[in-house]
Amino acid sequence: MRLANQGGIYVVAGLGQLLLDWCVFVACSALGMPIVPANVFGRISGALLGFWLNGRFTFRDGHGARLGWRRFARFVALWSLLTVASTVLVAWVDARLGLQLAWAAKPLVEGGLAVVAFFLWRHIVYR
Asked: What domain count does the chain have?
């Protein structure tokens, strides 16, 4: 599949993933959960949806879905690094500017990381 097609599908899948991630993050933190575990729970929920959507639709080959345990292991390793970056950035905004601005910053942080993630997923996870 060509890069432009993959990019378009990735954006649509990513918006759904981001919405789920953000909703879980906001709900957990609004209920009093500290920002770090709230962000991790949000990212886990989005990651599970994203792994399936991207393997099934975005990066599939002519033979079908690109899932499986090897790909999942690579996904988890890279996702963990991206989660550390996301959590540090969101926690920094929370500590300096407050919870409501952390809620607002979360989609921006995740959007920036999504650009990096696209190339990592394409060349390392779903190859």
From this structure: 1
